[in-house]
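Final report, results section. Input specification for complex C-07:
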Amino acid sequence: KNEVEQSPQNLTAQEGEFITINCSYSVGISALHWLQQHPGGGIVSLFMLSSGKKKHGRLIATINIQEKHSSLHITASHPRDSAVYICAGTGNQFYFGTGTSLTVIP
Amino acid sequence: DAGITQSPRHKVTETGTPVTLRCHQTENHRYMYWYRQDPGHGLRLIHYSYGVKDTDKGEVSDGYSVSRSKTEDFLLTLESATSSQTSVYFCAIRGTGLAGTNEQFFGPGTRLTVL
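Structure output:
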């Protein structure tokens, strides 16, 4: 069993839709990261959070420490948001989820 | 841009040949990591380094060795490449973000194909 689980694995949305990607973890972590990877591209850090909520443009990340759960929200989705989104926890090491592949259709 | 480069970016090789991938950082960070990324598995840790000449194994270290003779370079060697080592390899460094929490920065990746 993976220490970090993401859902859904794949997600297709129409442009403009509100999108939520979920992440649950079973290990103690000091911070939760959301990463973005475009097809054939490198991995970019979107957020690092240890409590509460962070917002950057149309992206919002939240974390509930007690429930060991985090969500990544994308408002007014756009085709350029199409990418794989990876949740990762920092504990004694980095624990990675397997990613959520998002496709936003124009 | 966290100042991490990987070379080569793409490589095709034959089974049984040795392969070395290089990760170079300009950030002077202590921790460096090698991951492989495969469909359905996400990122898996191969080896990591916590200083010059200090390295340790990750969860998928079999068939791989590493070396770090200076802070800026972390080399990953496949002693005798096999088709199961066809993958995308990412190097990462760990830096200190705000409030002292650790953040990882990734290199651009190396796509390795073993025929």
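The mean pLDDT of chain B is 91. Residues 46 and 62 of chain B are 8 Å apart (CA to CA). This concludes the modelling results for the funded period.
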